[in-house]
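Q: Given only this backbone (163 positions), what sequence would you predict?
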């Protein structure tokens, strides 16, 4: 199994010091988090805030790539402020448990909203356990045999980590 690398300011870091991180990440729950689910997890009063705090506390490994980080920042800036968007993305980028995965194969599994494929491709390349999303476009993945990508709604994932 190869290891992704941590990111900082949406730029790939060198691989120095990554081996210890890789050993930690191999045994950790890996997810790809859709942008809307990230947005829902941020407010402290949200019923899904535990997802964000578990990511920050290193209990969940968030799998990302540059495309995903850019989308996070773009959408967060629209919904909040540029400063908040930057701070959230920077927090994700600086976490030692963030798993940065370059994508070399683009499967194109989602045809209704092709922009969502970045999450699917990252999940496959990073061997993520789930994509956490409430976006109906991802439901097509339930019918695809290979590559198998499991989908959980934010409600299902929040229930799972509450146990």
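A: Predicted residues:
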């Amino acid at each position: 199994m190869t290891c992704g690398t941590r990111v900082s300011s949406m730029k790939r870091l060198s691989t120095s010091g990554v081996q210890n991180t890789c050993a930690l990440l191999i045994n950790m729950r890996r997810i790809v988090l859709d942008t809307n689910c990230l947005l829902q997890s941020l407010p402290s009063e949200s019923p899904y805030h535990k997802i964000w705090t578990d990511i920050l506390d290193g209990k969940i490994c968030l799998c990302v790539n540059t495309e995903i980080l850019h989308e996070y920042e773009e959408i967060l800036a629209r919904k909040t402020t540029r400063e908040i968007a930057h701070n959230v993305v920077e927090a994700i980028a600086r976490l030692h448990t963030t798993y940065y995965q370059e994508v070399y194969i683009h499967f194109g599994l989602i045809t209704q909203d092709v922009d969502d494929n970045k999450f699917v491709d990252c999940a496959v390349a990073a061997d993520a356990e789930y994509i956490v999303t409430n976006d109906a476009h991802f439901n097509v993945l339930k019918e695809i045999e290979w590559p198998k990508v499991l989908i959980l709604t934010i409600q299902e994932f929040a229930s799972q980590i509450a146990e």
